[in-house]
Write a structure and sequence with these properties.
Elements: H1 17-26, E1 31-36, H2 42-54, E2 58-64, E3 69-71, E4 74-76, H3 80-86, E5 95-98, H4 101-105, E6 112-117, H5 123-133, E7 137-145, H6 151-160, E8 165-167, E9 171-175
Parallel strand pairs: 1-2, 1-6, 2-5, 6-7
Antiparallel strand pairs: 3-4, 7-9, 8-9
Helix pairs in contact: 1-2, 5-6
The structure holds S-adenosylmethionine.
């Protein structure tokens, strides 16, 4: 996606628009979905645009703490102002929640059709994110996440699930 008014664009590593398209095609009308980890909004915008273009009624929650977090031992921090600027054109399709992932999961019951985890990539965090969001997904729903090629992510995912699907070696996906 090339957007002339898009700020940032280096940190998120968004490379899964095809997976998001597949998910939106699968979603029922009146679906509830969550993306955990928005960074500067690239993946969030993609999902929001797909929902808008599908004509389906989908409640899309985008969760991010905007606090420092680790990827491969390196500290990063997302900037809410950049995210807010970038998502302006699709704001009607996104319910942004500024909250820690695991804390936020507590506010949901088992009502979700899809959750995508792309937050802190350390092993213990991914493990805790999976444990927090898995019980919130309906039977027949989907839990997925990014960066399966990272050691900590892969270890956490493999300890919970057998037979995950993989896309572009970086997205892991489990149909429940
Ligand atoms: C890799 S970036 C997300 C990239 C985005 N999905 C994309 O592809 O454009 C990770 C994001 O997760 C957020 N994050 C990290 N740990 C978190 C936590 N415990 N709770 C909520 N958000 C968190 C960070 O603030 C950051 O914006």
């Amino acid at each position: 996606m090339i957007r002339t008014n898009f700020r940032g664009g280096e940190g998120g590593g968004f490379n899964y628009p095809d997976t998001y398209k597949m998910i939106v095609d699968l979603l029922p009308d009146n679906a509830n979905i969550v993306e955990v980890g928005v960074w500067d909004g690239e993946s969030t915008i993609c999902m929001a645009e797909l929902i808008r273009d599908s004509g389906k009624r989908v409640k899309f929650y985008a969760v991010d703490s905007f606090k420092p977090f680790m990827i491969d031992g390196v500290k990063h921090q997302a900037d809410y102002e950049i995210y807010f600027f970038n998502t302006e054109h699709v704001r009607n399709y996104i319910h942004t929640i500024i909250c820690d992932s695991q804390m936020c999961a507590k506010f949901f019951d088992r009502s979700l059709d899809f959750v995508f985890i792309d937050a802190d990539h350390e092993y213990l965090s991914v493990k805790a994110d999976i444990a927090a969001w898995l019980p919130k997904i309906k039977a027949g729903g989907i839990l997925a996440g990014h960066d399966y090629d990272m050691e900590g992510v892969k270890k956490a995912v493999d300890e919970v699930f057998d037979n995950i699907e993989q896309f572009k070696n970086t997205v892991w996906l489990k149909r429940l």
